[in-house]
Structure formats: structure tokens, C-alpha cells
Amino acid sequence: MDLFLNRLFDALSNGATYALIALSLVMIFKATTLINFAQGEFAMFGAFIVLVLAVEQGLPMWIALLGSMGLSALFAAGFERSLIRPFDPTNHLPLVIITLGAFLAINSIAGIIWRFDPRAFPNLFGSGVAVEIGGATLRWYTVGVMATVAATAILLTLLLNRTKIGLAFRAVSSNLESSELVGVRVGPTLQFGWALAAAVGTLGASVFAADPFRQLEPTIMVRVLIFAVSAAALGGLDSIGGAIIGGILIGCVQSLLVPYTPIPNDLSLAAAVVVLMLVLLFKPSGLFGTPRVERV
Amino acid sequence: MASAPRFQFVAGSSEHSTYRLIGWVSLVVLLVIVAFAYNDTASLTILDNEYSLGLTRITKAIAFILALLGLQVVAGFTGQLSLGQGFFFGTGAYITAYLVQDKPLFGWNYFTSLIVVVPVCFLLGMLFGIPALRIKGLYLALVTLGLAAVFPALVQLQQLQEYTNGAGGKLIDADIVAPSWLPLDGIAGAFQSIPLIGQYFGDGDLSSREEDRIWIFFLMTIVAVVCFKMVSNMIASRPGRAMRAIRDNETSAAVSGIDLSLYKTLSFGVASALGGVGGMVYVAELGIAAPLDFTQLLSILFIVGLIVGGAGTLSGAVVGGLVLAFVPEWASSTESLPGVPERWLQGPTGTLFLGLLLIVLMFVLPGGVIAGVRQLRARFVQIIPQAPGAAAAAVAVDDAASEEIAGDLDDEPSVDVAVDESDETTDTTKVGGEV
Amino acid sequence: MSRVLDVSDLRGGYGPIQVLHGLDFHVDDGEVVVILGANGAGKTTTLRAVSGMIATTGKVELNGEDVSSTNTADIVRKGVAHVPQGRGTLPELSVEDNLRVGAYIRSDSEVDADIDRWYDVYPVLRERKNQRAGSLSGGEQQMLAVSRALMSRPTLLLLDEPSLGLAPLIVQDLFERFAEINKETGTTMLVVEQNAQLALGIADRGYVLESGAILTSGPADELINDDQIRKAYLGV
Asked: Rounded to two decimals, what is the model's pTM?
């Protein structure tokens, strides 16, 4: 039972990170039906900026985090404007290639600047144990990550449902041409989606790296991206709630399901890929997504 | 184009055949020269940086070229964006390493291991092609990327340790040794005695290492040529037409009676088998199969190779392979550049360059280097297709087919209707050397 | 009477295919003008050209201002509302959000009042205000699309085949409402239609479009009695 609880807590904290990255994938997918393969690298870079601001510049942790989220958003907005918008949005191949190029470039730039030695990431949520249930320990970190995901989901929902830019974003996601016909400026609205996604991604990578058992290094998000993609697909790729639940479920697959089956622990990533494949094969709209209609 | 091309050929005419022959001959001559000039640790010095041109790099490039040839089949010609080619490259490498290192009693060497590598990779590829029947485009890219990401963990599994040697990688002791009857020394000597350029061919007798290098290079070149010939025949015949139809419009291909499931899984099978052959060449050159050589980074780099050369062109694979083999190496050899702090030249500068190159290409040359070369060449050479009736009799099958491919893929249909393989290959080799 | 829309020598199409071959037409303030034409005559393309959704040459003047090279979002801000063919509602959004997004360019405080007003005109929309627009019937979607367009308080309303795919009774009702809206709000309307009888019934003037060129034009009551048009478009 204690072991189960410990594993459940692991599942929740891992799953929460996957949920945050999945959220950032979903923000862009919702609007453009595109997957940004560089999303994880954007996020990793953002986490390094947090590290620089907090450790090297000595800023308070939360200011550093918010500052880096803002910088990531600016960067992503510029990325959208200069590298994505010039292309036909309905032809995915060039856009996928661009994001793959960005993946390589950002990953290498981080490697050149910060090298590949792992670095300790500042503590975000206080250390130590929040609650002890029998032999199982619920760490403050896990509590913090869960709270962060919940807060992010609530804020995003409010932003999308209660603000004008949120309304425009939902309109563009639903029907691009009709949105233009009511005066929505499509380019800047999509740009807003990219910016928002990058900010959420940076938050995700930062809370992931903030686990006292982890350290930050340039390849930290490469695996996480695959888990997050599975999470997003499981949730339906265009659903915010779906991304969160998908993230938690993938966390459970990794930390709960795999340990109780003969699947070797090292293959938890493979398990996530299998989930991704099964979802796309048998229920491409995921648990909460909008069914897609293929046009000929 | 502003002015008429300087040379004009009628497809199938004797002049055209001569033109093609000249292309092939210069290719062979070039290969021989490359082999003897660069067998040594030849290098080029620019701005105080030494850039290696060694033959081992070129053999490594052949490994990448084969994997890219496969990627051309599945992604370039069938339109299935696969980010999992590294998986099969790795599989080929590990199977070869296992057979050559652990089963020498049964007489396995690098080439006989292909008997196992090709069918295994082919079947694995077909197996992974099955999801592609329902998963399309972006989603297929996601799944295949996942596949590629899993590979390193897979070969490091406890249960496979005794076959793969886990994280340390599988070392192979066996080398490919040049047979003693080959007069390599004599040829080298002949090259060295040529006035003026002789100095570029080193001096004195070749060491046995150098002889082996030249031998491996030629063997692998033959493997590559055989693979190219088979793929170009396939592309030119019925399966190839079906694949291109699927790429251009899946639904209308299905409506016109093309068996989607057959040709999609077939293209995955062929691509994966070629990936496996590439893995064999890779491990034969390197002597070790290590898990971290086959991450999803490799698969993404293969996409760079695909795009740099030009998706949907076989010769694009050559350009892509050379770029993938040389750029990272040269980037890490660049230790000083005027105006750039040294710190910035250390680390994964090659990957950075390739990533930026990928982005820039999408803006300036989305058809890849081959499209650029074709546009350029169209200013000098024009091949006029014959009237259908006459052409049918005069033009060899593969000739006509490669023309069809070229016309099909060209960005500017008016530029050159016919591009044949022979000179294509020479062109790209030159371009590749300059990259 | 001032010109709301003045189009001269309008040419345009999709990529290399030219659809419009030099159109001249105009719409005056407060008018309902109909453009009649068969399938493929270029009706939808004409409206898309006015909205700045395709590349064109020629001149499009809106209230005397040249908008030929203005982008769609800005043309909307100059008072044009466009109900596209197939209605173009936002299926994932609620009915109320659809109306709200119609007022996207407005920043005044009367948006809620306007929403209420259109709920009064089409009570069925009020009943379904929290439903997803995609779940509405065709007729309801058309009501929503028109209300949404009017939420921007346009000076010129472009309607692209509002009758398409709707039952005759519903179409009848829809066109009667158009006439009422035109009288009550003074909104100028440019309607393209295949259903000549209905459209001419509410229109002041009409144009007949064929193969991307204006074939004939005139007051609605003249066109409705024109033998050729009766044969071609009225089926009598």
C-alpha cells in the first residue's frame, strides 16, 4: 500500500509536468492543427533562463520564473511571425520541418551555452515532506506541481473564456475564415497562441527540473516531449481538460502501470509510445477531442 | 531561363547516350580519385582550422546515404513522413555487430549479415508501416518519432545485455581486410607519379590500414550502387508509380484502384531494409554499435539529409548523406573563426548549423540542393524528349522512367523535362564535396 | 443617395484561374441589391473580392474610400459584414459566443443589448444560447450567421446564397426578415442568389452575372419581368 501510494505520488508529479507540456502543445494544435516539435526545446531553454535569472542574477525565484515565461512568450511570438506565418498554414510538411530545425538549433544552442553538465535547479516549492501516510511520503514538490497545474488550467480557461483575445483565439481555432470575416486578425491571434504555449511550456520545464531529484541539462525535455505528445493525443489534442487528464494518465502508465507489469522500467517511454499509437489507431480524437473530419 | 541552353540533346539519341556515358565515366573516375587522394588523413586548412577529408568519413557518408535512400522511398516518394529511420539504422547496425562479433563460427561477415539484416528490417518496417494505414501525416511523424526515441532504451535492456552489451556499445574486432592480389600500391604509385597533381596522392606505399580503407570504400560503394539501381528501378516501375500516386493524393490513388495498404507497408519495408543496410555500413566503418548513436536526434538529422538533398530525388540522398557525415565533423574542427569567441565554437555547433540550414532551406530552396542544381544545369544542358512513338522504341526503360521522375519532381516544369541519373550523380557528388 | 459600394473593372480569381473578368456594379445607401447567377458564374468570388479575401485588380470603393488592397480584418472595420456561403458559424463555440465574436471589432457597452435584440428577432437562438453552434439546424445556423454579421453594426451586409440547402418555407421566412431588417436598421445589403424569385422580391435592383461578367442589370421589378431572365433563372 505504501509503495502504491509512493508510486501514485510519482505518477501525479510526473503526470503534472507532462500535462503542462501537453497543454502547450494543445494550445498550438487547437489553433493550427500543427504540432510544434520544438515545444520541449523551447521549454528547456526557458528553464535555463529561469536558472540564469535566479542563480546568476540573484532574482527571487518567482520573479525569475515569470520573467522567463515572458521572455519565452516573446521569443515564440517572434518565431511565429518570422518562421511560421510566411508559410501556407494548411500545408503541414514545411511547418513540421521548420519546427524540427528549431528543435536541432535550440537544443544545440543550449548545449553550446550551458554545456551538457547537469545543473541543480533552484527549489520552487520548498523541500521536504508535506504529509506522511504510513510509509508513503507526499513531498511538498508533488503538492506544488499539482497546484501549479491546477492553477494553470484555471487561468488558461479563464483567459480563453472570459477575455476578448481568448474569444478570438477560440474563434480562429473553430473556423479561420469566418473569424477573419468578423474582423479578427488571424496572424496576431495565432501568435498569441504560440506565445501562451511557450510560457506554459517554460513553466512545465521549470517545475519538472525543480524536482530535487532532478537536474537541468539541455536534453531534459527530449523524452518529456514524447510523454507529453502521448498525453496530448490521449486527451484529444485540442482539449485543455484532455491534456491535463491525459498527462496524469500517462504519468500513471509510467509510474503505476509499468512497475506492476513485467514491462521493464526502462521501457516506460515505449509504453507511452504504445499508448500514443493505440489512441491514434483506434480513437484519433482521444478521450475529449473534437472528431476530425478529413476533407478530400 | 534567359538564354537557350548551350547543349541540347534529343532523349535516346546517340549524343544523349554519349552524354550519359560521360556522366557515368566521370563518376567512376571521381570515385577512384577520391579513394586514392583521401585515403590518407587528407585535410584542408581554412583560417587555421583543419578540416578532415578522410576516406572513413566518406564511407560513413555512404551509410547515411543508404538510410536516406530508404527515407526517400517512404517519405520522398510515398509521402509518409517517418521520423523513425534511425530505429532501423540502429537495428541493422546491432544485428550486424551481433552476427559478426558473436557468431563468427558460422562464417558471418559484414556482407553475409545482410542476409539477416535485410529481411528482418524489411519485416519490422512493414510491421511498423501497418499503423501508417490509419495514422497519417503529422500523427505518423509523432508515432515514428516515438519509435526512434525508444531505440536506445531498447538495446540497453537488461534482458538484451548479453547480445548488445548495454550502454557500453557492441564492439567488433573483425576488420575488412583488403585482399593481397589487389594492386592498390601500384595504382597509388601511378597517381603519385602524375606531374603537378601527384603530390595530392600522398607518397610512398600505402599502409595496410590505408589499403583496407580503400577496399572498404569500394565495397560499400558497390553496395550503395546496387541499392540505388534497385530503388530507381522500383521507383520507375509499377510500385513506384503507385507510391507517387499515394503521395500526391491518397484518396484519388485509392479510388483509382491502388492498394494503399500494400504499397504503404511495402514502402516502409523497403525504407527500413535500406536503413538496415546503412546500419551495416555504419558499423563496418566504425567497428562499434553504441546506443547513443541511434537516438531520435539521428532520425531528425535524417530529415535534414532528406530536405537538404531534396525530398523525392534519389540523388538527393547522396547530397544529404555527405552533408550529414561531414558537416558535424567540420563544425567541430572549426576551433577558431575571426570575430567569434572560441567558446561559441565548442559544443554541438554542427547540429546547430544543420538545424539552421534546415530552416533556411525551407525559405530559399525548399526543393533541396538537387532542385537548385537542376535549375542551374538547365541553363547549359537541355534534353528534349522525343515524340512518344519514337521514344518508346528508342529509350531504354530505366532511362524513360528516370525522366518521368525528374519531370514529376521538378519545381519548374519548364526547366528540364528530362534529367538522367548518371550526370545527376556526378553533379551532386561535386556539390556535396563543396558543401 | 450616396454610394456605399462602388466596384469597377474588378478582376480576380484563385491562383492562375481567373474567375472575374471586369465587373462594374454599385450599391447605394439603404438599398438591397441582388446579384443573380448560376453555379460557377462567380457570385461567391465577387463577394470574396469585395471582402478582400482574394487578390484582385480593379477598384473597390467603400463609402468613397479605395479598399482594393485592404485586408479582410480592416474591411470589416470599415463596416462590411459578410455571411459566407455555408454560413460559416463557429461550430465549437456556443451560440452566445458566436454572437459575441460578431461584435469583435466593437468596444462599446451595447454589445449585450444587441445580443438581446437579435434574441428577440430570433427567439430560437435565445433558447439555444448555451448550445454549440454546430448542433443547430441549417435554418437556425443561418439565423445565427446573419445575427452574428449584424452584431458588428455594419453599413453593408454581404449575403452569400442564404437560401442554400434550406427548406423553402424557411427560406421564405428568412428573406422576409432580411427585408424587415433592411427597413428597420437601414442596413445596405448585397445578396448573391440563385433563387431569383425570392431575391428579386426583396431587392431594389439586381445584376445578372454570367461567366464572371455582368450580363444585364436593372431595377428588380424590371428584371423580374424580363423574359430572358424569367427563362434562365425563374424557370417559367
From this structure: 0.85
